[in-house]
C-alpha cells in the first residue's frame, strides 16, 4: 500500500510498514470486473431485496386509518405521531411541540419530540394528501433512502476494497430491508434513513467535499440527538468548517419556523414554556424515561439502569462518552475512527435500536478490511465490535418469547454499548 501525504483536516496517519490501524488507507480507484459468480450474487441479492421490500412496505397500505380507538397501533406510528399530524397541526396554525395541543387535536399516542423545526417544512409534502396516500408515499421514499444508503456504503467500501459497486449495493440493500433494523424503519415509519444518509455523507465527504458534507450534517441535525454529538466529533476530528457550517445550515433552515411559532404563541416566553412542557412530558413517559423498564433506549445511561438498577446522570454520560471518543478518534485513522464516531453518537444520549442504522457504512468497511488486517493492533477488537453491533440487525424478538417482554431491548442496548467499548479498545491499542 502506497504512502500518501495527509490533507488539511485529515487526522489519519501516513502509511508506513507495521503502522497498524494508525496508518491511512489509499483509496481504491480501479474498477472491478464483474465475473459470473458476481452476476449470480447480484441477481440473488436483488430478488431477495425485492421480496423483503414488498413485505416491509405492505403495512403502509394495510394499517387502519388513525382514530382514538387505534392509537396504540404500532404500524406507521412514527409517521403518524412524528410527521403527519404534527405537520397538520403546524399547517392549521398550532404549535406541534405543545403536547397538550397534539393530544387534544389529533389521534396520536406519543408527543412530538424536539425535532428540528425545518422538519415541518421538509416533510410537508407527505402530510398534504390524505393519510393513506401520505403513508404509502413516505414508506416508498424511505425505501429509496435505504437503497441510497446501501449505495453510499458500497462507495465507502470501494475506497478500500475493489468490490463491484452494483453487487455491494444490492447485497447491502437486501440485508437492510431483511434485517430487523431495516424493516423497522418502514414498519414504524421512522425518519432515520434520511438521518443515516446525512451522517454517512458527512463522514465520507468531510475532507474532499466539505460543502456537501456540511449539507449532509444539516440533515443529520434533523434529530438533535444525532446532530449535536456528530458535529462535536467532526469538530474534534479536524473538520471544523463542516461541523460549524452544517450546524449553521440546520439553524438557518429552522429559523423561519421558529419565528412563526414565536409570533403565533405570543412571544418568546410562551414559546419557551411550550419547550419546557415538551421536555417535561418526554422525561415522564414510559417510552422515554431513563429509568423506565419498558423504554426502548440503548444509550449508556439507559443500559446501565436496565442492567444494574442504578440511574446515572445523563449529562455526565453524554460528556464522558463524547470526551473519551473525541480524544481517541483524533489519533485513529479511518475506517475505525468512523466506527467509533457513529457508535459514540448512538450511546452518548437517548437512542433506540433502529438508530444504529447510521453505523451501516462504517460497519461494512471495517468488516471488509478485518480479514486482511486482523493481525494488526486493534483490529481484533474492531471486528468483534462489528459482530456486537450486528445484534440489533439480526434478532427477531425471539429472546422476548424465551425470557419475557422487552428482554430484546436490553440485549440490543448491551450489545451496542459493548460495541462502543470494543471500538474504544481498538483505538487505544492502535495509538
TrEMBL record:
Q: Where are the transmembrane segments?
A: 40-57, 131-153, 160-178, 184-205, 212-236, 242-263, 316-333, 339-371, 378-397, 409-427
Topology versus the membrane, per the UniProt entry?
Multi-pass membrane protein
- Has keyword Zinc? no
Q: Which InterPro entries match?
A: GT87
Q: Where does the record place the region Disordered?
A: 1-21
Q: So which domain of life are we looking at?
A: Bacteria
Which Pfam family is an annotated match for this chain, by its short name? Answer: GT87
UniProt entry tagged with the keyword Amino-acid biosynthesis: no
Compartments, record wording: Cell membrane
Q: What is this protein called?
A: DUF2029 domain-containing protein
Q: What is the lineage of its organism?
A: Bacteria, Bacillati, Actinomycetota, Actinomycetes, Pseudonocardiales
